[in-house]
Write a structure and sequence with these properties.
With about 140 residues, the protein is mostly helical. The chain has one domain. The chain contains 6 helices and no strands. The longest helix has 25 residues, at about 5-30. It is globular.
Length: about 140
């Protein structure tokens, strides 16, 4: 099992980054579906471009060992927003995509959660330094 852990960890990081980077073309080029999505939720164009920039940042951070946890946290937050809008305003299926974008958001959220789980001790250590150790 110890030999498979690094494979799972790196696969989760790379897959999450690839999926987020792949969507950037559509956000930055102003693809019809992307404009429709962000118009429907009332965030066009600033939301589309801002989300694209944040997804790019998350993708880079998740690939760097020291900041993988931070990229995963940002990616999970972004996917939580995407899932929220799918479940409240957009619907699971958007413009006949068969739920593909919803599925990608779920997948990236799960992958980011896996990365965070692998970094539990690092996150705990950072939180203790930032917020101070609790005295008994």
């Amino acid at each position: 099992m110890e030999k498979i852990k690094p494979v799972i960890y790196w696969t989760a990081r790379i897959a999450a980054a690839i999926i987020m980077v792949q969507t950037l073309y559509f956000k930055f080029s102003g693809a019809e579906e992307s404009i429709y999505i962000f118009s429907t939720v009332g965030m066009e164009p600033w939301g589309r471009i801002g989300t694209g920039i944040l997804e790019l940042v998350a993708s880079v951070l998740i690939l760097i060992n020291a900041t993988a946890w931070l990229g995963a946290l940002l990616g999970l937050g972004l996917m939580a927003g995407a899932l929220f809008f799918h479940l409240t305003i957009l619907g699971i299926e958007v413009k006949g995509d068969g739920g593909y974008l919803f599925l990608l958001a779920v997948l990236v959220a799960v992958l980011c959660a896996i990365v965070l789980a692998f970094n539990k001790q690092r996150i705990t250590d950072i939180a203790a330094k930032v917020f101070g150790k609790k005295k008994n």
